[in-house]
Amino acid sequence: MPHNSQVNSTNWGSFSFLFGPVMAFVGIGVLVLFLRWGWSRGHSLVATPVRPGAMDDYGVLVAVSTPANLIEGEVLKQTLINQGVRATLALTNDGPRVMVWPEDADSARTILRSWRG
Predict the structure, then answer these.
(1) What is the pTM assigned to this prediction?
(2) Per-run averaged pLDDT (10 residues), the chain, 117 residues
(3) How far apart are CA 107 and CA 87, in angstroms?
């Protein structure tokens, strides 16, 4: 009957003495890469808070509505989107604005007028 140590031993060859140090270096290397990525600037996975901008910071978009708050603005934006008008809600220095492309401005105003009653 063989001894217990002979049954469980594995023959890794002459390089088995390198396994421990190589795995330690690989583990440290992975940690170094992870920490370099985690502490680097400008690559955050967390979104930066929205900053209000001036009306002319939005390029060619035209404001078609001035909602009282962001909730009302989101409702108005979704109303326009459901009618096929490309719209966005922008937080400006003067409060929230529902903005559309210039070619959609007249139809957006008509839709919002009829929606408000």
Answers:
(1) 0.58
(2) 54 74 94 87 73 84 93 94 94 92 94 83
(3) 12
Closest CA to 66 of 85, 91, 83: 91
CA distances from 86 to 11, 28, 69, 80 (A): 68, 50, 20, 7
Q: First CA to last CA across the chain, in angstroms?
A: 95
Instruction: Assign domain 55-116 to its CATH superfamily.
Output: Hypothetical protein rpa1041 (3.30.70.1530)
**Contact in structure between 19 and 12 (CB atoms under 8 Å):** yes
**CA 2 distance to own-chain centroid:** 61
Which residues partner with 62 through β-bridges? Answer: 100
